[in-house]
Amino acid sequence: MRCLVALLLSLTVLLAAGCSPDNGDTDGAQSGWTDEDVTFEADGLTLHGTYRHRSDAGPGPAALLISESGNTDRNGDNLVAGPIGNMRQLAELLSDRGVASLRYDKVGTGQTGLGPFEKNPDDVVSAVYTAGAKSAVRFLAQRPETDPQLLSVYAVGEGTIHAVTLAGDTSPGAPKVHALGLFQPLPGRYLDIITTRVEADGSPETVAAWRAAVEQVRTDGTVPDKLPEGLGAIVNPGNVKAVIEADKIDPLALAAAVPAGTPVLLTCSDSDNQARCDSVQPLADALKHTDLTEVKLEGVNHVLRDDPTDSIANYAKQDPLSPQLVSALDQFVHKVDS
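Above: the chain's sequence. Below: its structure in token form.
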């Protein structure tokens, strides 16, 4: 069951404060790029972020970056795995290619507090994260340095749920998303993904207990008093409300709502326990109506670095992003923003 521990990074909603953000790289000023601390509002919550841009440039391409769900901050840092930094690296890669970016601390992480959820943290469910993403993309679209025709969204893990939601958003005032980058995406409903992992790694008794728990959660909204082999860390009375809300989301239905012809970069990896290519295939199929680029990475872990072990212990080593990922990003950015 140890493989399931990795799933907690992206699939379990945690409300502890994330690591303090590193607001930029030391070469930003020399390269002409500025890392500006910004804030914006989402349903009474003030979110803090980093807007990386050229202050002397006219309107150009810009990208919203959405990290994993739970306690993962603007830079991809996580209390479970430590200072991962992959989202900061992604922002720097994009600026090297002429793309401005906004990344932000989600509710309860980095400099963003719980705000109106302080007294009721159990109310922080997937819809709250989506509201933050919607506010972020509108903020970015309104910046004078942003060409609204070249507004993209890049996301990792469960953050891709919110990215795809933005692309299909037809509400008044919603910016048009020009292109999507979906890195190691969440490929199915929350509890279905966990079930697949339990079936692969668990004993018959564990599988039976978990299936019964899933049925109980989905029908009664409650969880068993006891679950085997650490599965109680995934769903328990303290997080069951958030789990229920997350499980209602069907990534395939969201993918179907992405406008036809939208350029989409979709990655998976043979080493990522959360986004293996066979499990991501149904999502790729649901995106066939878009201008889809599928990239099957080899030996790349969930935080987009070369590590065939996909060990959480290695997530905070601050290695460069995988050259395979960088190459795919190069080609995609050239395609959509040139």
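The two ends are 46 Å apart (CA to CA).
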